[in-house]
# Entry
Amino acid sequence: MSDRIVFEDVSKFYGEILGVNKVNLSIPPGITSLVGPNGSGKTTLMNLMTGLVKPSRGRIEVLGIATDDPEKMFRLVGYSTQFDAFPKGLTGFQFIYSYLCIAGMPAPEAERTAWQAIERVNLVDAASRKVAAYSKGMRQRIRLAQALAHNPKVLVLDEPLNGLDPLARAEMIALFRASAAEGCYVIISSHILHEVDVISDQVILLSNGYVVAEGQIQTVRNEIQEHPTQILVRCDRPRDLAARLFQSEYMIEASIHKDGRGVLLKTRDADRFYLAMNELALDGIQIESIAPADDDVLSVYEYLIGNEEVVR
Amino acid sequence: MNRLWWTQVKAVIRLELRKTFFAKRGLWIYVVAALPVALFVVYALVMANQHHRTANIARQGDKPLTYQDLLAVKPGMTRQQVTDMLGKPPLNFHWTEDRPTDSGATEKIQHEEYRYSDGQNDLYVALSNGEVQNIRIEEAYNLGQDAIMFAGVFQFFFLRLAIFFGCLGIFMNLFRGEVLDKSLHFYFLSPIRRDVLMAGKFLAGLLATCTIFVTSELLQTAAFMWHFNDRALNLYIYQHHGLEHAAIYVGVTILACVGYGAFFLVAGMLFRNPIVPAAAALIWEGINPFLPSILKQFSVIYYLKSLCPVEIPVSPGTPGLFALLISNADPISPPLAIIGILTVALIALFISSVQVRRMEINYTSE
# Structure
């Protein structure tokens, strides 16, 4: 069995409208975030990954299982969609319980497992109420419970933090991290970049149906040559440091930090910059910290896609 | 079918039955199923009222009469002979007619109508100038005629309209309804084979339609026999094959649900607008008697008509096209009819299983 989620030259067209085009991906365990503006193809990619839509071209496998085999695939995959409709007349508990029964679980085990899933999303008090009467956040949580209920190896979560209050967001993020730490594949789509930045092990940047970049965020950042690297250096003599560094041809810009205790530098060659920093440290400048200032998702997103429709 | 699939099918059936039986948009199906029951209840009430009046007439007579007494009256008998034999009539009407003669004058003719009863059957005696001209006996229970009436309602309303549209309402919504509600992804995200899901939904629809329409059929039979007295009931059940007919009607109802259900299940997957396949199927089933033999076989009503236990006779003078609609000119044997309808259903289910595997969740295009 393969240990990756694999897309091979996958394209999806809705009639003449492009969903995604020529996607090649190999997603490892951990938290992978799909980032892109509305209409960039995030949900299409997730629907393709879970077999809800069929690719117009190409091949998709989830841990070695074809997506047109739901009986095998959904034993490994849990998908929390953005679709906000539920089977009519069901309570929160019945929703999860029915799902587990359809999965073939015996009734007593399904009941126990359903309660466990409901507890994981803190919805026990509302479990006996009709889902139709739930708030947006509660509906989001019951969908998460459905995705988590059968302890899948792969969690596909479309905008999972939408509608959740800050406390619930923190709880859910902890839940995703715990799953990733156990070796699960957590695929999250989000347009809230600072959250993606905090939780992701790797990102897939999408724009207009194309994968613009993928991988660990620092790796992606390093591959963007046309934008100089920004580095914040904290030290006791920022003006001296700026003056010394600015003599090098690879330095483009230096500005003193507003608190006067650091300097923000832009360089075309980060490797040579770090070598130079070693020499400066030997010259007696007390350097407290050196940290990249633009290897976060927000910066990479802005460099590659622009700043349309994102929430910082 | 392995054990897992059967467990999954049962889970789907449980969920679907709840939705099907209690869906607000399906309430009209109960109304359609109840209409023939209401018709037979009204018929039974009218007949019960008639029996009550007949019994009253018998009570008002000079002496108790038997059916043989009623049959003894013959045309040409005098008023006196009739009253001597049957007593004074409990009900009588008389009027005078001025009839013109050949000479241009008018002749007065005294008309009378006597009505007698043995408590169940009515005798109408028409007299002119004191002589019996015409007699008519209305029997309380004309079981042959009643069976034909029941067959007519069953074939022309219950099968062709009630079950047809009931199956349309239930089976087309099994997938199409969930697409419109945007909730089909719930099933498609479960670890269940799509064809197992389809089988579960079909069986749920079949259970629901069979429960509704078999109940309706049994209630129709009960209402139909409601006005029978013990003698007529025994006669109908044991000598007129009433029990056998009731069982066959139940069987035909179930087969109709299988046939129409399978058809509308696949139609719900292939068409967005249910009116198109419904109208096409209604026309196809309607023109079935006019089709060549080879095409007749691709129809549900063709097999169902062959299974119905009572053939509706065509009255002399019925227009040709209408007579063709009523009669079953090209019947096939019951075993072949059952095999035929199951084959049609299996073909439809096979197409459904292919179609369900191809289905995608794309609510925005709906």
Q: What stands out?
A: Chain A touches chain B through 32 residues (CB under 8 Å). The radius of gyration of chain A is 23 Å.
